[in-house]
Every structure is written in C-alpha cells, then in structure tokens.
Amino acid sequence: AIAAGDVVGARTAVESLGEIVADYPSPAFESGRQVAMARVLLAEGDASGAIRELRPAIKGWRDVGAPYEVARARTILSRALRAVDDCLARRIQARRMDRSGGRRTSRCRD
Hey, which of 4, 54, 77, 90 has its CA 20 to 30 A from 102? Predict the structure, then answer.
C-alpha cells in the first residue's frame, strides 16, 4: 500500500496486523509488526517514531535468527536516521550493515 501511495490503507493494515499479533504472540510476528509500523510512520513523516519501532524490531529479528529481516530493518532504520539527519547513528548503522553483509543506503555529508 505504501508503494502505491496509500499510507492510510497501510496504517489500517498494520493495525489489523497488530490485532493478529496480540492473538498469536511471537517475537517474529511482533518484529514484523514493528517494521511494518515503522514503514508507515516513515511514510507519514514521523522518522523518530519509525526509529523507536525499528530498534526493538532489529533486536527481535536478531534474537530469532533472521539475518535477512535484520538487514531489511536496518536499511529502513538508515532511511529514518537520514530523515532526522543523525549522521553518527547512520555511520554506526552502516558499519553494522557492512559486518552483516548488508548494503549501505546512505552516506553522511561531512
């Protein structure tokens, strides 16, 4: 929905996902919900809110052993950090992505 520009529809879908996660709790489901909510928040212009969702999501994906999902969440985190212009945090995130084999999505301007 976000790719099609339907942020309202995406938020509705994430809220429905939250209900499912509440009924069937698991670390992976919760991490998936957090990443989805972060994407919605980022599309709505709330990069700080997206960052708050992504940090525990990355930990959750790491805890369940899902390196691909960790890398995807870190990519979104990098975009959110760029949106709030947090250069130091982006550099740290870039180093983590390098170590995990991920692709850098942004560079800091010095």
Answer: 4
**Tens digit of each residue's pLDDT (9 = 90 or more) over 12-36:** 999 999 999 999 999 999 999 999 9
Residues in Cβ contact with 10 at an 8 Å cutoff, skipping those fewer than 6 apart: 1, 2, 36, 39, 40, 43
Q: How many residues does the chain have?
A: 110
Helix locations, 4-108, DSSP H: 7-23, 27-43, 47-63, 67-83, 87-100
Sequence-separated contacts (24+) of 8-17 with Cβ below 8 Å: 10/36, 10/39, 10/40, 10/43, 11/40, 11/44, 14/40
